[in-house]
Amino acid sequence: MHTADLRFQYRSPEAAALVADAVGGELGEIDGDRATATLAVDGSVVRVGIDAADLVSLRAGVNTWETLIEVAERSAEAGQPGDIL
Hints:
This protein has about 80 residues and is α+β, with helices and mostly antiparallel strands. It is built from two helices and three strands.
């Protein structure tokens, strides 16, 4: 088993929760039989854990979740005036 623990730091717990809520719906939807993901918010940090059967699946999972987080961040910035993230 191969694992990755991604952590994304935000200005506030509210900003972290906003991003986590935006990507949380993808849990279980994009997992395959070779990789799974978990999502947690710890204060102002969003944590994504990825477990994969092989390195190729781990790399795909990391790329997928980094992209999902990036899109959520851009959407939050566009939808909220000011500097929230």
